[in-house]
Amino acid sequence: MSFDTIIQIEKIAREYEMGGSKIYALDGVNLEIGRGEYVSLVGPSGSGKTTLFNLIGGLDRPTQGVVYIDGVDISKLDAYELAWLRCRKIGYIFQTFNLIPVLTATENVALPTVFAGVPRDEGLKKAEKILASVGLKERLHHKPGELSAGQQQRVAIARAMANDPAIILADEPTGNLDLNTGMEIIDLLHGLNKSRGMTLIAATHDLKMIKASDRIVWMRDGKIEKIERG
Amino acid sequence: MLYPIWLDISDIVTNVEQDSRVQFGMGDAARLGYEYIVRRFNRAVINIASIALGIAFLSTLLMSDSLYRAYALAGGERLGVETYQYWLMFVALIVSVVGITNAMLITVFERYREIGTMKCLGAMDRHILLLFLVESIIQGFAGGVAGYLLGLIGAILSTGFTIGFTAILMVPIAESITLLLGSVALSMVLCGVATLYPAYRAAKLNPVEALNYEL
Asked: Which domains does chain A have, with CATH numbers?
């Protein structure tokens, strides 16, 4: 199976200053990710997975090298364009769900559509539809505190999909879930990746997640150790 | 028609989308700010009470003055509010502002992760700034109204025993309405000013750090 390139990472390095000495969180990483591909990033904590994520998501800037998304060098984007990229192009899923506790499931999912300039009613209607598609039809008006961990992660996945992004970045999405719930979340993400053609990049330790992916990128000490076909 | 430069570049990014600007207006901020106030009511009550007390002090003094003047016009003895009382009022308002700044700073710390998440979802610095300012100004509105009503009661009680409660009927309506509008406006301005620094801190948060923050 071949994919046209959606993300191209060229020789990126990200260094941090820590107590006077420089630490390389990423050190010369090259990676190409195809549209619709499902890539797992695997490696011990501190291997640079999260840093790589933040760079792809435009949350952080590399010290060296370039990240292209759809052929555009994202370091050249200004604050407006970066916000727009995060809003429309990329969906984030976190290990800790990070839902807004004062908002209901529907409102949480509709939040990215607010930033995208979608009229409120339309955004809420869309949010309900997406929530139904992730199996939360009965939980539309519950707040995060009233939902189980698995349900909260479903809401987070629905929120990530709210603006139909081309790329979903999932940082340890099953890290806070029990075995069965984690399994359901993996199936859900995998299904979305296949049915909607969303590019899915997941940092994970979870063997079942790794097995489902098209490619596995092993990272160690800020470098890519090896890349395997799934 | 001239397009801003960012529109051109992001058209390449998207190919399809027309409007490539993230949106978050006053209405959105007001709606979200209102949700925060309603659903974290306890914290809002502290803020509202803080500004309401300052405003109550102010409107008690000004209303008392109006009542005294009305009483004097009606042929009564000319009584007045002492200058030191105005100074006390001034100090009370400053204390209110400092209290609100403090409470809003804590609110910002509590919401570190949420702010980081919102930035991931497309919020820009100015949107976060707007969100906190609007939330505070809504509280200022509530505090202004509450403070005015408290002040009214305070003025009636404090003057009533010296010049009699009938003086209330002599106060021109226009004067009390001006005082209401002034109190509410001042309250909103003070809340806005008090929140400038906390809101700025929130807006400038680095999303990466905010997301990793453990409270």
From this structure: 5-229 (3.40.50.300)
